[in-house]
Amino acid sequence: MSVNIFNVLAVSLPALFSTCASAEDLNVLYSNAYLLKKPMEEIVKGFEDAHPGTTIHLSDVKGYADMTQLMLRAAITGGVPDVAFQGTSFLQVFVDRGLAVPLDDFINSDSDWKNFGYSNSITKIGQVNGKTYGIPFAISIPTVYFNGDLVKAAGGDPQNLPKTWDGILELAKKIQAPSGGIYFDYAPTGNWTFISLIQAAGGGMMTPDMKKIAFNRKEGMDALKLLKAIGEAGMKDMSRDQAKQAFAAGSIGIFVTSSSDITSYTEQAAGRFPLIVSQFPVPSEKGTLPAGGNAIMIHTKNASKQKLAWEFIKYATNPESQTAMVKAASYIPVNERAVQDAELLGNYYRDNPNLRIPVSQLAQLSGFFSFPGENSTKITKAIKDQLQAVITLKRSPEEAMLQMASEVEALLPNE
User: Fold this and answer.
1) Global pTM?
2) How far apart are CA 37 and CA 199, in angstroms?
3) CA gap 267, 246 in Å, rounded
4) Which tens digit of pLDDT belongs to each residue from 136-147?
5) Rounded Cα–Cα distance for residues 123 and 121 (Å)
């Protein structure tokens, strides 16, 4: 049974994640149940059927940030789950605090590992400081959504949509819509879309040695200038949830946000307007996109439970489980065998071309950058505030960059 742990947090964490559970039990925590509840429950049932005597205690929390706060509190009060589907932007946090079990020994001792179907780009997503701490389960990347009717009304061609930011902006300015021609989701967890703009252009947030900031270079300034141009194109500032509702209602022409909601938007747009999905522009040949979504981490220190948890990870990422996950949500699968098998996802993607768009960018995926040290959350908040100031035309890119760089440098570790 799935329990919304967020609603019962005030009662007792240990009550949900009992430290007295048998070696055949696993406490598993995940988030975004609005998308993943059905496949998670299917995976749990399948795993229990394949492992008689094993019980999976499945709990959910609202989002990755909530889960992180919950985990850090549980590390003090007790009741840390054995396994958790952690947001990729938070892997570094758990590694830094000693709450994550490295998985390299499990991988190296598993003779069939190379036959499981994981691509190199996928497995790298779960690495921190050169070691593997998470196996991705459900991945997302920024994606560009178009309202086909509004595009056509603006003189655009829904069958030949712009692939560059210049082209997207030019079209956005022509779109007449109640909630604006374009909305750029600038405030997701961990400054995800800002990092995406910088990495897609071939830049980075910090130098490779993680000693100095690098987002204040050309790629970062270009990203801020793009946000300013989006603001000048008439973007209306609203919350992410409000933007989702407005786009689904047909009142935003172009929506730049996560690929994880393709299925949801497709269902909501049905009968209202044709939904068209396009790739997030990657202008540099060496450009990459930070993988959002989640990776499965082992947190238990119990050796027997760790072995069972490893088996659960492999089951949750096998071709059949990944197929169930994809058909319930719009995440990118981590198992290439599922993608290539016509009976699993091959024919499914053929019949649902919008869902195939983010999958086509698998080779461009990279891990989700996280700032080092105890102030990572404060840093991402400082950056978000400057992004909002630029996109709402309250501050110039140059002013915002100076402020952003100053605040971030002050919050980074001194060593």
Assistant:
1) 0.87
2) 32
3) 14
4) 999 999 999 999
5) 6
